[in-house]
Amino acid sequence: MQQDRARVDMSFWAILPVSLPALTITGIWVVYAMALYNQHVCPVDNWLYNQSCEEELHLQSGPTLCCTLENVPLISKCGTLPPESCFFSLICSTGSFIVMVIVLLRYAHVIEKHQNCVLNTAALSTGWICAAGLIMVGNFQRLVYQLPGKHV
Questions:
Q1: Rounded CA gap, 103 and 128, in Å?
Q2: Which residues are in the CWH43-like N-terminal domain (predicted)?
């Protein structure tokens, strides 16, 4: 009975590595859909971009959006302006937390099955550095936080 309960508890932790890409990929598409709905970016299938907005191309859709190279739907561009920037920050923070938990569980699993080694510790620190970088990317957008005296 005790062994069956431990097996059920461990199966819950097996969902984490699968939930990370499912959450982040779905979240990125939701951020893109929000940016597209608010006309902050052009659609992915629009391959015609104007050099300027003085003349419109006949194949472009959207009454007010002029598709220039400033409106290319990059991930960083989709998550820059509110309200999609708030959801982008939430997705990045949640994904970063899941990365930290997965890396910590993997570290503990390797220690339990084998002895501790330098490579395992290096993998733990590298994973946590990547998670910290994801938090910084998601929460410090370029247009919102600029250093004083620096013009980008």
A1: 7
A2: 12-141
Task: Read off the pLDDT of residues 71-86 as tens digits, 9 standing for 90 and up.
Answer: 788 888 888 888 999 9
CA gap 93, 136 in Å, rounded: 9
List, in sequence order, the alpha helices (H) in the chain: 2-13, 15-37, 75-78, 84-113, 118-139
User: What domain range includes position 105?
Assistant: 2-139
> Alpha-carbon distance 93 to 40, whole Å?
23
- Any domain includes 17: yes
Cβ atoms of 62 and 17 closer than 8 Å:
no
pTM to 2 decimal places: 0.76
Q: Count structural domains, the chain.
A: 1
Q: With respect to residue 144, please indicate whether it lies within any of the assigned structural domains.
A: no
